[in-house]
Design a protein that fits this description.
This protein is mostly helical and 159 residues long. The protein is built from six helices and no strands. The chain has helices spanning 4-20, 24-49, 57-73, 79-103, 109-128, 141-144. The chain is flat, with a radius of gyration of 20 Å.
């Protein structure tokens, strides 16, 4: 119990930061820092304790991000329930990928290659699926400059 006191103090201090800091730059920096720390903990658990090296973290993180964004943007779901659904979707994909890889008894570099293959398959599916925009999202003006768009109002699209 004694070792949890510093952890609880740090968590309480971080939770109080938005009450005192109004700068979006600082808050964005802290959010990104915490996301990177979370990814590092995932690598620590799987690689350090489990002895497995996985490239599948991109699948789980990406699935959660896509589910959250799609629920918010396309269906108007509140951020917190969408966030919870994103976590559940990422965990479900992780369970399926892990079950398939460990059921086959893969270890070491074979496990790493299978998770890399799953990550690539999910990336390709996400880039062509109609629900994610299927590469038809208008690009910004800075990207259009290379394609010689004539007007700021004229969007350029991929494809």
């Amino acid at each position: 119990m004694r070792s949890l006191v510093p952890v609880a103090f740090v968590i309480a201090a971080l939770a109080a930061v938005p009450l005192f800091v109004q700068s979006n730059v600082v808050l964005n920096f802290l959010v990104v820092t915490l996301m990177i720390a979370l990814a590092g903990q995932g690598w620590n658990i799987l690689g350090g304790y489990g002895g497995q090296y996985s490239f599948g973290h991109a699948i789980f993180f990406g699935t959660g991000a896509y589910v959250t964004a799609i629920l918010q943007v396309k269906y108007g779901v509140n951020a917190w329930p969408a966030f919870g659904c994103g976590i559940v979707a990422g965990a479900a994909v992780g369970t399926v990928v892990g079950w398939l890889a460990f059921r086959a008894g893969l270890r070491g570099s074979y496990f790493a290659l299978v998770t890399l293959a799953f990550a690539e398959v999910f990336r390709i599916v996400a880039s062509v699926a109609p629900i994610t925009g299927a590469a038809s999202v208008p690009l910004s003006i800075s990207t259009c400059a290379s394609r010689r768009c004539s007007s700021k109002a004229e969007p350029c699209s991929i494809g």
